[in-house]
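Late entry, PRP complex.
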Amino acid sequence: MLKIALSKGRILSETLKLFNKIQMDFSQVNEDTRKLFFDFEEYGTRVILAKPSDVPTYVEYGVADIGVAGKDVLLEDKKDVFELVDLKLAQCKMVVAIPQDRSIDMPIYRVATKYPQIAERHFVKRGIPVEIIKLHGSVELGPILGISDAIVDIVSTGSTLKKNNLKILEEICPISSRLIANQVSFRVKSYEIMALIEKLESVL
Ligand code: PRP
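Prediction complete; structure with ligand written out below:
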């Protein structure tokens, strides 16, 4: 049985639609039921529902053979997994944002973010020493409350930045969902995984 870890939350419905396009109907997978795994004997597949940031961990440890994880999570929390396909779901970008009324030339001392590793690497690369403040959500509050001068976060539609009077200072990288695989499973179950990749690539 091929075990697939999928991320709960916003991206789940997009992921299920993609599998539906390759005739894998996972419509029973529904996070409202509180059930966390679903077996589909007809496809020889078990779907495991996980928090987005836990998907690479399940795949690294092999409790899931493959998974669908955001590039943000993969960059933040580097795991020993193979990144196989850009599924182009949940496309957005990682950015540095500052208050609308702040000049782009003003130095940045403190940065609030859910992604401390990505932020740290970005500012080190730019040779800018900053203090990174880790928050677990609603990071846009950072500059409003004065805990930081800037944020590093994901922007999709841009409406959260706009509503909180922030503007993009620079783009760090594009983000989207990736198909990842456990390194052993990729060899042991290569036939099943390659067949799945071929089908997915045909509809991307
Ligand atoms: C993400 C991100 C932004 C928002 C951006 O947060 O951290 O806050 O989405 O989307 P937009 O550009 O379309 O407005 P999420 O909704 O995942 O929640 P959180 O901030 O509570 O973690």
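The chain has a mean pLDDT of 96. Will revisit in the morning.
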